[in-house]
Design goal:
This protein is α/β, with parallel strands linked by helices. 36% of the residues lie in helices and 20% in strands. The protein has one domain (16-25, 32-92, 111-186): Spore Coat Polysaccharide Biosynthesis Protein SpsA, Chain A (Alpha-Beta Complex). The chain contains seven helices and eight strands.
Protein backbone atom coordinates (compact mmCIF):
# COMPACT_ATOMS: atom_id res chain seq x y z
CA UNK A 1 0.00 0.00 0.00
CA UNK A 2 1.21 3.50 -0.88
CA UNK A 3 0.86 6.26 1.72
CA UNK A 4 0.76 10.00 1.04
CA UNK A 5 1.16 12.77 3.61
CA UNK A 6 -0.95 15.74 2.49
CA UNK A 7 1.11 18.78 3.50
CA UNK A 8 0.94 21.30 0.65
CA UNK A 9 -1.87 23.53 1.91
CA UNK A 10 -1.49 27.27 2.37
CA UNK A 11 -1.93 27.17 6.18
CA UNK A 12 -3.83 30.49 6.12
CA UNK A 13 -5.38 30.06 9.56
CA UNK A 14 -2.07 28.99 11.12
CA UNK A 15 -0.14 31.91 9.63
CA UNK A 16 2.90 29.71 8.98
CA UNK A 17 3.50 26.38 7.28
CA UNK A 18 1.89 23.97 9.75
CA UNK A 19 3.63 20.98 8.18
CA UNK A 20 6.91 22.35 9.58
CA UNK A 21 5.64 22.90 13.14
CA UNK A 22 7.34 20.68 15.71
CA UNK A 23 5.58 17.81 17.44
CA UNK A 24 7.51 15.28 19.52
CA UNK A 25 10.77 16.96 18.42
CA UNK A 26 10.20 16.69 14.68
CA UNK A 27 8.12 18.47 12.05
CA UNK A 28 4.47 17.42 11.81
CA UNK A 29 5.00 16.11 8.26
CA UNK A 30 7.81 13.84 9.49
CA UNK A 31 5.70 12.52 12.39
CA UNK A 32 2.83 11.68 10.03
CA UNK A 33 5.17 10.06 7.48
CA UNK A 34 6.61 7.87 10.26
CA UNK A 35 3.12 6.74 11.23
CA UNK A 36 2.19 5.96 7.62
CA UNK A 37 5.41 4.01 7.12
CA UNK A 38 4.20 1.59 9.81
CA UNK A 39 1.20 0.54 7.69
CA UNK A 40 2.34 1.29 4.12
CA UNK A 41 5.00 -0.20 1.86
CA UNK A 42 6.16 3.23 0.77
CA UNK A 43 5.39 6.85 1.65
CA UNK A 44 5.27 9.99 -0.48
CA UNK A 45 4.79 13.63 0.44
CA UNK A 46 2.26 15.83 -1.35
CA UNK A 47 3.96 19.24 -1.31
CA UNK A 48 3.56 22.71 -2.79
CA UNK A 49 6.20 24.35 -4.96
CA UNK A 50 7.54 26.52 -2.13
CA UNK A 51 8.07 23.52 0.15
CA UNK A 52 9.91 21.70 -2.62
CA UNK A 53 12.24 24.67 -3.15
CA UNK A 54 12.77 25.43 0.55
CA UNK A 55 13.27 21.95 2.04
CA UNK A 56 14.96 18.62 1.44
CA UNK A 57 12.90 15.53 2.23
CA UNK A 58 13.89 11.89 2.76
CA UNK A 59 10.72 10.79 0.96
CA UNK A 60 9.61 11.20 -2.63
CA UNK A 61 7.84 14.56 -3.01
CA UNK A 62 4.89 15.02 -5.36
CA UNK A 63 4.06 18.60 -6.28
CA UNK A 64 0.49 19.73 -6.93
CA UNK A 65 -0.49 19.76 -10.58
CA UNK A 66 -3.34 22.07 -9.54
CA UNK A 67 -1.86 24.53 -7.01
CA UNK A 68 -4.32 26.27 -4.73
CA UNK A 69 -7.15 23.80 -5.39
CA UNK A 70 -7.25 22.35 -1.89
CA UNK A 71 -7.02 18.71 -0.81
CA UNK A 72 -8.99 17.48 -3.82
CA UNK A 73 -6.37 18.96 -6.16
CA UNK A 74 -3.55 17.42 -4.15
CA UNK A 75 -5.20 13.99 -4.07
CA UNK A 76 -5.91 14.06 -7.80
CA UNK A 77 -2.31 15.15 -8.46
CA UNK A 78 -0.96 12.23 -6.45
CA UNK A 79 -3.19 9.71 -8.16
CA UNK A 80 -2.36 10.98 -11.65
CA UNK A 81 1.33 10.55 -10.88
CA UNK A 82 1.18 7.26 -8.92
CA UNK A 83 -1.82 5.43 -10.48
CA UNK A 84 -2.32 3.06 -7.55
CA UNK A 85 -4.58 2.79 -4.50
CA UNK A 86 -3.56 5.44 -1.97
CA UNK A 87 -3.67 5.94 1.79
CA UNK A 88 -3.96 9.69 2.40
CA UNK A 89 -3.12 11.33 5.73
CA UNK A 90 -3.13 15.04 6.44
CA UNK A 91 -0.10 16.50 8.20
CA UNK A 92 -2.30 18.31 10.73
CA UNK A 93 -3.76 15.32 12.61
CA UNK A 94 -0.96 14.59 15.12
CA UNK A 95 -3.15 12.74 17.63
CA UNK A 96 -3.81 9.88 15.25
CA UNK A 97 -1.97 6.64 15.98
CA UNK A 98 -0.68 3.62 14.11
CA UNK A 99 -3.59 1.67 15.62
CA UNK A 100 -6.06 4.19 14.15
CA UNK A 101 -4.41 3.88 10.74
CA UNK A 102 -4.34 0.09 11.00
CA UNK A 103 -8.08 0.02 11.67
CA UNK A 104 -8.67 2.06 8.51
CA UNK A 105 -6.40 -0.15 6.45
CA UNK A 106 -7.96 -3.38 7.74
CA UNK A 107 -11.46 -2.08 7.03
CA UNK A 108 -10.43 -1.16 3.47
CA UNK A 109 -8.90 -4.58 2.86
CA UNK A 110 -11.92 -6.42 4.32
CA UNK A 111 -14.48 -4.59 2.15
CA UNK A 112 -14.61 -4.22 -1.60
CA UNK A 113 -16.22 -0.78 -1.88
CA UNK A 114 -12.85 0.82 -2.63
CA UNK A 115 -13.09 3.71 -0.18
CA UNK A 116 -12.61 3.82 3.58
CA UNK A 117 -12.40 6.85 5.85
CA UNK A 118 -13.32 7.93 9.31
CA UNK A 119 -16.49 9.83 10.05
CA UNK A 120 -16.13 12.76 12.44
CA UNK A 121 -19.27 12.83 14.59
CA UNK A 122 -18.24 16.10 16.27
CA UNK A 123 -18.10 17.92 12.94
CA UNK A 124 -20.76 15.76 11.27
CA UNK A 125 -18.62 15.07 8.21
CA UNK A 126 -16.30 12.54 6.63
CA UNK A 127 -12.52 12.88 6.98
CA UNK A 128 -11.25 12.35 3.41
CA UNK A 129 -7.78 13.52 4.43
CA UNK A 130 -7.49 10.37 6.53
CA UNK A 131 -8.64 7.72 4.09
CA UNK A 132 -7.81 4.79 1.83
CA UNK A 133 -8.91 4.98 -1.81
CA UNK A 134 -8.97 2.29 -4.49
CA UNK A 135 -8.34 3.17 -8.13
CA UNK A 136 -12.02 3.03 -9.14
CA UNK A 137 -13.00 5.69 -6.59
CA UNK A 138 -9.91 7.73 -7.44
CA UNK A 139 -10.87 7.66 -11.12
CA UNK A 140 -14.30 8.99 -10.12
CA UNK A 141 -12.62 11.71 -8.08
CA UNK A 142 -10.52 12.73 -11.09
CA UNK A 143 -13.69 12.97 -13.24
CA UNK A 144 -15.41 15.04 -10.53
CA UNK A 145 -12.40 17.34 -10.27
CA UNK A 146 -11.98 17.82 -14.02
CA UNK A 147 -15.65 18.82 -14.25
CA UNK A 148 -15.01 21.59 -11.71
CA UNK A 149 -15.78 19.84 -8.42
CA UNK A 150 -13.58 20.87 -5.51
CA UNK A 151 -15.58 19.93 -2.39
CA UNK A 152 -14.64 16.47 -1.20
CA UNK A 153 -17.75 16.42 1.02
CA UNK A 154 -19.93 17.08 -2.06
CA UNK A 155 -18.13 14.29 -3.89
CA UNK A 156 -18.73 11.89 -1.00
CA UNK A 157 -22.41 12.85 -0.81
CA UNK A 158 -22.89 11.24 -4.23
CA UNK A 159 -22.02 7.78 -2.83
CA UNK A 160 -21.53 8.01 0.93
CA UNK A 161 -19.04 5.51 2.33
CA UNK A 162 -19.72 3.68 5.55
CA UNK A 163 -19.51 5.95 8.60
CA UNK A 164 -16.51 4.32 10.22
CA UNK A 165 -15.92 5.72 13.71
CA UNK A 166 -12.49 5.78 15.36
CA UNK A 167 -12.03 4.17 18.74
CA UNK A 168 -10.77 7.50 20.06
CA UNK A 169 -12.52 10.47 18.36
CA UNK A 170 -9.81 12.91 19.48
CA UNK A 171 -7.49 11.32 16.92
CA UNK A 172 -9.33 13.32 14.24
CA UNK A 173 -8.54 16.69 15.79
CA UNK A 174 -6.99 19.08 13.25
CA UNK A 175 -4.26 21.53 14.23
CA UNK A 176 -5.18 24.51 12.03
CA UNK A 177 -4.70 27.60 14.21
CA UNK A 178 -2.00 28.94 16.53
CA UNK A 179 -4.39 28.33 19.43
CA UNK A 180 -4.91 24.66 18.55
CA UNK A 181 -1.16 24.16 18.15
CA UNK A 182 -0.50 25.85 21.49
CA UNK A 183 -3.02 23.53 23.18
CA UNK A 184 -1.36 20.52 21.57
CA UNK A 185 2.14 21.45 22.65
CA UNK A 186 1.47 22.97 26.07
CA UNK A 187 -1.39 20.88 27.44
CA UNK A 188 0.14 18.48 29.97
CA UNK A 189 -2.98 16.32 29.71
CA UNK A 190 -2.33 15.59 26.02
CA UNK A 191 -2.19 11.84 25.67
CA UNK A 192 0.60 10.60 23.42
CA UNK A 193 -0.34 7.25 21.90
CA UNK A 194 1.34 5.18 19.19
Amino acid sequence: MIGVVLMGGKSRRMGTDKAMLLWLDKPLWSHMASLLSEVCDEVHLSVNENQLISHTFPYSAITDLYPGEGPAGAMVSCYIQLRTPLFFLSCDMPKITVADLGLLQNHYLAHDDGLTMYYNEDRNCYEPVCSVWGTQKLNRLVDFFIKGGRSLQAFLDSFPPEKLLPENPTCLENINTPESYHRLVHNPATEIRF
